[in-house]
Records
---
Amino acid sequence: MAKSKKEKSESTDLRLPADIQYQEELAALQKADKDSKPHGWQLSPRSVLTYICGGTAGKKEITPKYIGRSRLVEIAISTLLTDRALLLIGEPGTAKSWLSEHLTAAITGDSTKVVQGTAGTTEEQIRYTWNYAMLIASGPQPESLIKSPILRAMEEGTIARFEEITRCAAEVQDAMISLLSEKRVSIPELLTEIPAQKGFSVIATANTRDRGVNDMSAALKRRFNLVVLPTPTDIEVEIEIVQQRVQELSKDLNIQAELPSDSTVNQVVTIFRELRMGQTLDRKKKVKTPSGVLSTAEAISLLTNSMALAGSFGSGEIKVEDIAAGLQGSVIKDEDKDHDVWEEYLRNVMNKRDSDWKKLYQACLEIQN
């Protein structure tokens, strides 16, 4: 028998789906929701916005899942009210997958119908395939049909997620065209078609900086409404995002270490932003950019790893040595190019800042040597 949501929330799963992890917030929003709900939605559009951007539901505080322009979230929610699919596009680390998962959790209560796009994704993973043992034994039967997450979402009138759609080959992407246009899947082996029920939609994500990307055809793009998620516009917003996610991750992973100080987060975010922008924050000095993106998500990962280092092999308080170890690995992705970029940044930028920066500078030099 399947576990209840409560039992799942108390399990040892490494990562819980958003609809399980935030079930108390979703339940509070459902209870307080007085607005009309579209067919198949568990929350009204306004309550979905509150779940994503934060607010209150009765006496329950709703934590923000996406920190950024709420107008973009409103456009995304409005798209899912129509017969158009939604495409979230942007640079790595701009919370495309995170927003996709939470939108689906809030609207349908199930964020697990996912197709992960890769170079090896096939058309069968988008439509359907067969249990070949049953197929050989008894021929094409409904029982031997293995439905894709998208096909299951069509049957149930819910939302499916398609992560990194542009990593799939063009012919695999094009399998989505008829599916999104006709809103039905033909199964000639069973002489039948499965129509989409009201409430069905697809949220896809696409990465603008990933190598090996296959551009979407104009025909497929026309089936989507595009929402571009920008990188955080200012450092204060990015720091807030990093602090919130590091706190959440440290709690989920039970990392036995103190949270990074405000100055530590500020330093990491500043380094990432300056290397990403190709200039210092005061715009007085240009710097070379590394081959990697140095996204907000990578800053979160670096600080979380530094906490794990400090908790497992240190005093529990993050030291500059813990940060330096992570910085080297984050910046230097291509040894031939990035080593010189990082060395120049250390020498010409970090070395010329105040004493707090000098400590980090010395720790980074020791790691390099």
---
Amino acid sequence: MISCLRQYLILCKARVVLLMLLTTWAGMYLSTHESISLWLWINTTLGIAFMSGSAATINHIIDQHIDAIMERTKRRPLPTGNLSLYSASVFATLLGSSGFLILFFGVNILTAILTLLAAIGYSIVYSAYLKHATSQNIVIGGLSGAMPPLLGWVAVTGQIDPQAWLLVLIIFSWTPAHVWALSLHRLEDYKRAGVPMLPITHGVSFTKLNIIFYSLLTIACSLLPYAIGMSGKPYFVCALLLGMGLLGYALKLQLSRTYHRIALKTFHYSLIYLTGLFFAILLDHHLLLN
């Protein structure tokens, strides 16, 4: 039973969903100076988590043949046969439908529709088309994964505000370098699978330069909340320190000849960076209220 549940959690990409929920909560709390009801918090969290898990499961379904080829993904539930395609499809349908209904009736209609569009953008537009169509797949498709702060914001306010898009912009600018670092580490995997990632289509050196560029862009975007008065000095200091680490890894990657190991470290640090950044902006907001 526990083993079966674990297989379904893998389908949901639970760790990725947790990071998305952190950015969702940031959007919720930054949208208001008032307290948020527990009922709204629970419904928003469950609705977005369920729909994100559904989109991740559909991604597994679409990519099952590629996953079977790649070393990193060949032990996932569908390539190994631990779960059937039918089971995964039913799971995705039930999870997605439940999440949509929770958001529609328990939060607001706009949040439900935006979350649905983001899920379709990732699971269908990116996974089924963009991933195989262009080396800029993650740049274009990254918008879907950057939406959770906006979804959290809209869940509380019922409207789309410019400040919410600023939070989206941070994740949107962060995503390419994060994914390209992994694609450098798993370059041979992507070659075997025939996925046109940037290092394959434009070379390793060009990819390294782009990682530096997007790291700088991410740092610049991360300072915008402070620039417009949305956050205070504690966040500003944390954003600078975390940004120095992000740029440091990008530069190490640029200067490294044997890049596979440092590429993986860059990938892992980018996760620490985004987690730390959104924790910082949440803590800073709490300090500003007190």
---
Amino acid sequence: MATSEFGLAETYSNDLLWRRYLELTKPKVVALILFTALVGMLLATPGMVPLSTLFFGLLGIGLCAGAGAALNHVIDRRVDALMDRTRRRPLPSGDLDARHAVAFALGMAAVSMLVLTVFVNPLTALLTFAAFIGYAVIYTIYLKRATPQNIVWGGIAGAMPPLLGWTAVTGEIAVEGLLLALLVFIWTPPHFWALAIKRRAEYARADIPMLPVTHGLTYTKLQILIYSLLLLWVSLLPFLIHMSGRLYLLGALGLGLGFVYQAVRLLRSESDARAMKTFGYSILYLSVLFVFLVADHYLGSV
């Protein structure tokens, strides 16, 4: 559907237009962000999270995450047009224009900061804004195009949600909240590099220096294995510092060894299908690991 750079297509139906704006926010990514933030909230208190903190905290964090995703769409719109995975997104497809997308993103970011500052606490608002700048500006504009370690350093912003959940409840930064962020930080590179193996030709065409493009498949697979081993060790720290008990320990060991197994099979395989299986397992890993954290927190050790 044709449209100018600064004008929406007049024929684009209103009933579909809101879906394209929703797509700008990367709702599946935001859902995972909100899940890890929720876990941070639940682990920060022995009882239930106050409903106002739960609602406004998740609302503010979700709005800011969606705003960052929308700016990512704007900044990457020309690169997205070169990649099969992203060329149907709202901006490269011409369904939305950059001006409206920027206004939409900045509006969400402003509402997010207002909600978090007024109804949660200033620390959570400040950390959420820092994560927003880290992802939408530092990672998307600079790191993504500057270094094959882009996803490692960019992962700092992506690791913030569980810490944000923790600070939303407690109003302070604690070792436990930082450890939750560390788990996501270590998990991010092997998760994303597995997908990058599958999409390496598209990244090369878009001139994005992802690790499989700059260093080859074998090196990338070895890095995934190294990070999966590191993740296994880091995932034991909640038990070692007495943040969690034996129920979590059993879950972390089983899931971590499963990730290492997936990484070993990927290293030995020549098939891109194995990379996508590793990518799929990584999503399952993080989700279930955080479920074990919550279950252990409320049910206690076995």
